[in-house]
Amino acid sequence: MLCIIGGSLMLLSGASGAVGIVGDITDDLQHLFGEEFVVTLSILMGILGMLMMICGAGVIVAGVVLTSRRVEVGRNIILVAVGTGVLGLTISLFLAAVSGNLAIDWRTQITQSLGWVGAILAIGARIIAQQMPVSVSE
């Protein structure tokens, strides 16, 4: 259940995150750095949003795998998906800082928070899955 909630939050974060950061500061960035920089930044944010959505879907799949006998496979899927998702969140924060937007607006804060909470819930599910004994029926 934690994986499904965490993955859904990561999906939501990826779906809404790419639009918010670049849309608010497009005019300022265009005057400072030119049109090419704005286009490149928009593409990068879109890629990071898609990456976050893929990671959220991976966490949901891992939650389903955890209900089978392949707990270790599910734990590894969570590890890869959350690691990639956290990397994407960190890079998007870095891109926001590099673009000169150190004061993050409330939409971006909510989007980032959803992604981080989803990643934390998925890590919690991974820890719980590690501690649960796997019953083997023969």
Major sheet characteristics: none
Compute the CA-based radius of gyration.
17 Å
User: How many domains would you count in the coordinates?
Assistant: 1
Question: Could you tell me the strand content as a percent range?
Answer: under 5%
* Oligomeric state of the chains in view: single chain
End-to-end CA span: 27 Å
Structural class: mainly alpha
Task: List unreliable stretches of 5+ residues.
Answer: none
The shape, in one word, is elongated
Number of strands: 0
Mean pLDDT: 78
The helix/strand order is HHHHH
Number of helices: 5
Query: What helical percentage do the residues reach?
Result: over 70%
Walkthrough of the structure:
The chain is mainly alpha-helical and 138 residues long. It has one domain (2-131). Helix content is 85%, strand content 0%. The protein contains five helices and no strands. Helix 1 (2-24) runs antiparallel to helix 3 (35-66) and helix 1 packs antiparallel against helix 5. The longest helix has 32 residues, at 35-66. The model has no long low-confidence stretch (mean pLDDT 78).
